[in-house]
Design a protein that fits this description.
With 188 residues, the protein is of the alpha+beta class. It is built from eight helices and five strands; from the N terminus they run H-H-H-H-E-E-E-E-H-H-H-E-H. Helix content is 46%, strand content 12%. Strands 1, 2, 3, 4 and 5 form a five-stranded antiparallel beta sheet that branches. The longest helix is centred in the middle third of the chain and has 22 residues, at 80-101.
């Protein structure tokens, strides 16, 4: 949120999005069993045990459907809801103190914290993400300049999101590359 934090701080925090140690594959299996009633190898023709991306809220595995179509499978990090609840408590305290001592004309810190918590709760529910992707996917089918991954609802739950795999560059790496000069707008 460069509109709230100084740009330098916001850029430094980008690594929180996709530079986190992955959680064990046994946890992935347990989540699949609990959410879909089957292990990943029973639902996919191929499922890569090692994730190709890992972030603060979850990690992403490559998989193949029965028709050999490659998909990305996002799995919510186990226990993240409890960690977020503890973080929310701290955020509420900081917002309370900030409202007392650091006045901002635009928005009270308490309201900012409330909005942040709402946004974060939505990020912890892959069904909300899937619904939003479906809406955007259906409304952009005729526009060849917009590519939205197709969601597979029969394989997706609150903690698992299966969508088309699309080759690309993570936005965090684009920002960091622009920051340190390895990437320019022309190279991009």
């Amino acid at each position: 949120r460069v509109d709230v934090l100084p740009k330098e701080y916001a850029i430094e925090m980008i690594s929180l999005f996709d530079d986190i140690k992955p959680f064990p594959y046994a946890d992935v299996e347990a989540i699949f069993l609990r959410e879909l009633g089957a292990m990943p190898h029973k639902l996919f023709k191929d499922f890569q045990k090692k994730p190709f991306a890992s972030a603060s809220f979850g990690q992403v595995h490559a998989a193949k459907l029965d028709n050999d179509h490659i998909v990305a499978v996002k799995v919510l990090r186990p226990g993240i809801e409890d960690k977020i609840t503890a973080d929310f408590f701290i955020i509420d305290i900081i917002a309370f103190l900030a409202d007392l001592f650091i006045k901002v004309d635009a928005l009270p810190w308490k309201e900012f914290a409330k909005e942040f918590k709402k946004w974060t709760r939505n990020e912890l529910d892959y069904q909300i993400e899937a619904e939003n992707m479906e809406i955007i996917y259906k409304t952009s089918l005729d526009d060849k300049h917009i590519v939205i991954p197709k969601v597979y609802p029969h394989l997706s739950t609150k903690r698992i999101l299966v969508e088309d795999y699309i080759e690309g560059i993570p936005l965090s790496r684009v920002f960091l590359g622009l920051k340190d000069g390895r990437l320019t707008l022309e190279k991009l």
